[in-house]
Amino acid sequence: MRFTSEQRLDDGVLERGFALGDIPGILWTPAAAPAPLILLGHPGGLRGMYPRLAARARHAAAEGFAAATLELPGAGDRPRSADAEQARADLRRALEAGGRVDDGIVDRLVLPLVEQAVPEWRAALDALLPLPGIGGPVGYAGGVMGIGIRLAVVEPRIAAALLFAGSFVPRALVEEARRITVPLLVLLQWDDEGNDRQQALDLFDAFGSTEKTLHANTGGHTGVPHFEGDDGNRFFARHLR
Amino acid sequence: MRFTSEQRLDDGVLERGFALGDIPGILWTPAAAPAPLILLGHPGGLRGMYPRLAARARHAAAEGFAAATLELPGAGDRPRSADAEQARADLRRALEAGGRVDDGIVDRLVLPLVEQAVPEWRAALDALLPLPGIGGPVGYAGGVMGIGIRLAVVEPRIAAALLFAGSFVPRALVEEARRITVPLLVLLQWDDEGNDRQQALDLFDAFGSTEKTLHANTGGHTGVPHFEGDDGNRFFARHLR
């Protein structure tokens, strides 16, 4: 891993771009060290997602957490996969046609992404955790439930996860969710039109963790209330310190 | 209203018993004044509920809130109603027999209680709010969803409500719930055996408030995690200050 850029933000947070092999990523570290690390999940496309990711990272840094994220396979400047592009086009067509999206499309879209991304995020942990200023257990906060589920199952360094509920979770990953044991906080936007509410509740029910909390709020996909950011920080403070 | 007892607790909170006509109640006030008032709901029987109510009141007082509660009709030393006793016996029999509880039993048990209790709680507000040390908008926090629903609908001084999900909410009150507009925080124990989860989710969906939040946690009826007390305080701090 090598750093490709570095800037000190006005709140004292150090933001560094990095490359893990060919994969770009960003690391935010607060002034106070050592800071537990939170991995920030996203739907892909670091450039477009930057404002929201930076805001989440700075909010976490204000509570003493470091944060890091990685570009997803097939997103940003990373090479496209023909199969994934085809699955994405099929999903778009199915959504436009209305009705239920075929499980096969979801599997073709999500499972290869999870297969490729999760080892990359674990390699990022290998590279990030030895850095000065970072220490302690790791959290995951993100909306790509597939990656979050698999990471929480296979990566013992993940001690707690905050998951934004979303649709299009392959059945195989719902089954994997039963094996998760770390504390979970699941955010659900109650009126999210692009999200099957019952599916999200069923997934919450499936998680194997003995400590799991669901926060459901009125509003659409991007309408998560500001106070949930504070709740997220307190959730991680309980489990990463 | 007259005070019947007074003691200063070790955390500086002043606890006063009172009588509103023949109805006993308790008022807790923190040292810092004026304090917004939170009404504490409960299933009836102040004597048995005292340890839990006092703990909730002292937790609220630590964040600068006053708290008050009132005995319910037919509970504690208050006169029993033959109809309510009959409905309670019918409910117990229905629960022992298993299966779905008839709506008629729920209506006979809850609706008269709500009809009688809500004016009493409003009269308590009339008596409590002019007291020195109490000021600002009022919150309701309680598990008797019927009383909480009706109060939030008819009492304009209630500015926010924290409701513990429970079963046996009459259909008429679910309809009333659609007219609630104040911010709500609803607590649901996900594995509460005495509670129909789907019914609780349907009720959450019915509330008319544009700001409503559901916190669902693993565990049974009495297993509400300690951190929900802090979340409740922050919810009221957002809306009562």
TrEMBL record, chains A, B:
<protein>
    <submittedName>
        <fullName>Alpha/beta hydrolase</fullName>
    </submittedName>
</protein>
<keyword id="KW-0378">Hydrolase</keyword>
<dbReference type="GO" id="GO:0016787">
    <property type="term" value="F:hydrolase activity"/>
</dbReference>
<dbReference type="InterPro" id="IPR029058">
    <property type="entry name" value="AB_hydrolase_fold"/>
</dbReference>
